[in-house]
Amino acid sequence: MDTETEAPRGGEMVESPFLKQLVAVIRAEDTHGQWDNKTDIDLLEEFIITKEERREMPIIGDPEPEVIWRLTRFYDAVGLLVEKRSGCMATQMQNMHHEGFGRVVLIAGRLVVVSKHLRDVHRFGFETWAKLAQAGEKLVDDAVKLIEEFPEAAKA
């Protein structure tokens, strides 16, 4: 019997400082040790949404609390990695409508280092591990560049 091996959901896992930070943020939420036996991939798998899964989702929908939780953890990881790289604490602020649109900003001192308009939050996720890592790392890199460009505002 000839069976084809199916590629893992989300493709091959990639090494990424952002993914490591995201796992650390998620594990920090586990105050009772319920996720101690879960692998990093187990904790991050809900961030992966394949093309097929996205097609099955309605175009318009209200985000579930779990999706908002994932979105918040994603931007928490961005903020913490910005702080590690720049020395400036980046705090997240979110304003989300119950229908799944809104805005997320990360502020370092008096400087807005990330400003992202969101829509279709009920479909929040990434097709591959690489795309998840790239999205987080790009936000971090751009935020750190802003802090380097405007250090007085970021440290105010």
From TrEMBL:
<protein>
    <submittedName>
        <fullName>Probable nitrogen fixation protein</fullName>
    </submittedName>
</protein>
<dbReference type="Pfam" id="PF03270">
    <property type="entry name" value="DUF269"/>
</dbReference>
<dbReference type="InterPro" id="IPR004952">
    <property type="entry name" value="NifX-assoc_nitrogen_fix"/>
</dbReference>
